[in-house]
Design a protein that fits this description.
alpha+beta, three-stranded mixed β-sheet
């Protein structure tokens, strides 16, 4: 017989074998770990990136499509295209309005030689005046001063002109004016450079005029003084507060300051409508204004104003003296022009010293302001 201890050990082994057999007899299944949903994956994993793109790509395409439909296409339709097919940035509406209004101002210019009226926009007319009235070789600030003076004269004339057929003439009666064709003929190969300079001066003062107590002034100007400008009432009858005599010492350095004109006794008698004695030069008396110009001229008891002598003899200025040499009379003049307002040569000299166009106009026109057309001539702009 087997011992009880040994039997117990055998039974234990049999029981364990039976348990193992029962387990091994169960169906076999391959165990797989369940993958967690994408949102618990780490962002650095390829799995996450794949699913992230799969969700985001349609959303990006949708947003891009909406942007093209709502923003891009209407912009391409609305914005004007230039020659390079590039959209141009729209300018400020207020600026566009002012420039359009200014360009709408037309100046009817009587072309004296051709006896026709030429309609020109205001700013183009000012270009033609500056080019004709002032040497293009002058400093830019002097050209700007000329532009603003010419524009002011034109606006003043447009507001007060009574003529029906034209606004202004193209002669020294008003302002000398030359159109594009005339300037091309005058300047030849230098036309492109010259017209660019003139246009730059005009454009930089676009829409600006000179005013006194909010009204456009009468901006007289002339070529060259005798060292001083003239009070308006000493040449014209009307006294204007902004046309006062001021120093213009720069003109004294001009080599063309002095000029002489010689007349025979017969020529002088014909032009003045008088009869002269053989020693008429000994019977001359001259009264002068504060600026040194002749206010009254008497010769052989025949009395004239300085302006009358200048006009009848076509002298350069009213600052003159007379000498007799046998049967000839020599008139020596200083300066060039009526002497009222701005000296053009003085303006150029001031510019060379570093003065700007505001400095120049405020020196020659006393107590004035620089205003815009909208402010000083609204009725003209609104036409």
């Amino acid at each position: 017989m087997k011992s009880p201890k040994k039997n117990a050990h055998i039974q234990k082994l049999l029981k364990k074998k039976t348990q193992l057999k029962s387990v091994s007899s169960k169906p076999k299944f391959k165990t797989m770990k369940r993958k967690p949903p994408p949102f618990i994956k780490r962002k650095g994993s390829a799995y996450f990136q794949h699913h992230q793109l799969s969700y985001r790509l349609p959303l990006i395409l949708l947003v891009a499509s909406l942007f093209i439909l709502i923003i891009a296409i209407p912009s391409l339709i609305v914005l004007p295209q230039n020659k390079n097919n590039k959209a141009t940035e729209p300018a400020d509406d207020f600026t566009i309005m002012n420039e359009q209004q200014q360009e709408a101002i037309s100046v009817a210019v009587m072309r004296t030689k051709a006896d026709v009226v030429e309609d020109v926009s205001l700013e183009n007319y000012i270009v033609g005046v500056v080019a004709a009235e002032m040497p293009v070789t002058f400093e830019m600030e002097a050209l700007k001063a000329q532009a603003i003076a010419a524009r002011t004269y034109t606006v003043n004339h447009l507001l007060t002109n009574d003529e029906d057929s034209y606004d202004i003439t193209d002669t020294v009666q008003d302002q000398v004016y030359k159109n594009n064709d005339e300037l091309k003929q005058l300047w030849g190969s230098a036309y492109e450079d010259n017209i660019k300079k003139i246009k730059a001066a005009v454009e930089s003062t676009r829409g600006e005029i000179l005013t006194y107590e909010d009204a456009p002034i009468m901006p007289a100007y002339f070529s060259m003084s005798n060292g001083y400008t003239e009070n308006s009432e000493d040449y014209w009858e009307k006294e204007l507060p902004y046309l006062r005599s001021v120093p213009s010492p720069w003109d004294l350095e001009n080599p063309k300051l002095v000029n002489q004109e010689t007349f025979t006794k017969a020529e002088l008698e014909e032009r003045l409508g008088i009869t002269l004695s053989s020693d008429a030069a000994d019977h001359i008396t001259i009264a002068r204004s504060d600026s040194g110009r002749v206010s009254q001229f008497t010769m052989d008891e025949n009395t004239f104003t300085g302006r009358e002598i200048r006009d009848k003899l076509e002298l350069r200025s009213t600052d003159f003296s007379v000498k007799q040499a046998n049967d000839h009379y020599i008139f020596t003049t200083k300066g060039n022009g009526h002497g009222i307002g701005m000296s053009q040569y003085g303006a150029d000299s001031m510019a060379k010293e570093g003065k700007n166009y505001e400095d120049i106009v405020k020196h020659y026109y006393q107590g004035i302001d620089i205003s815009t057309l909208d402010e000083a001539a609204p009725t003209l702009v609104s036409k």
